[in-house]
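Supplementary Methods, section 5.1.

A reviewer requested that the exact input to the structure prediction be made available. We therefore reproduce it here, unchanged from the version used in the analyses.
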Amino acid sequence: MEDATQNGWKTVHFEDGVFSRREEEIATEFPLTVMINGEEFATIVCSPTDLREMTIGFLASEGAIRRFQEIASLAIDETQGFAHVELTKPLEKAKEMHSKRFIGSCCGKSRQFYFKADVQTAKTVMTRLQIKPEACIRLMKEMQAASGDFQRTGGVHNAALATVDDLIAVKTDIGRHNALDKIYGEIIEKRIPLSDKVIVFSGRISSEVLLKISKMGIGILISKSAPTDLALNLAHDLGITAIGFTRGGKMNIYTHPERVIGTEAL
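The structure derived from this sequence is encoded token-by-token as follows.
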């Protein structure tokens, strides 16, 4: 599947007191069931793009794997909606880190907070990387402009891996946590060094999002949206610079502002 949209949904549009008929592109919602060693592990509702990377990132985020080498084989069956994974270890060990559940694409409580996997895989980030505020704002604009699916539908979240100068990878999904898993999967498979990297993100900074950034080992998160109090408490404790409301030439730095150049005098 080449993109995450469905073309040509017939719509009645209202604007300036006038009704008209038009066709709109709609974000596709796709269920992917992850099978590990022949057993069902979880079903993820996602956008049908970068499914390999998302599966890898999801397994790492859930604590089922720590390294890409723990995956003996991975096959995506897009027709049937399955990701078939064979691990180099028994499924029981993966289940110890994960509670099987349905993971929705909505922005509600789709996962409980602090599973055993979170406790064992979240880590404090010690990076000394710094970034200019102008770079935060520019990277956000570049990420949004780079997402064709967002431009066409407005119904997806974007996540990007970047240096302080350039975007490296941009992923799109109807689920904000799925977009981050796609980034995480690419990091793991390609063994991308992270000491000079930041995450740019369109969604709300929830505790789950913050924990994913911690598991990646990235110390700067730039979001277009708002944070939650639990996420900020975690960001403070885990050494992550959480930046929100990055839009319109403005932003809020909530935790560890020392990584943003120019805050030293405050």
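Residues 100-114 have pLDDT under 50 and may be disordered. These observations are discussed further in the main text.
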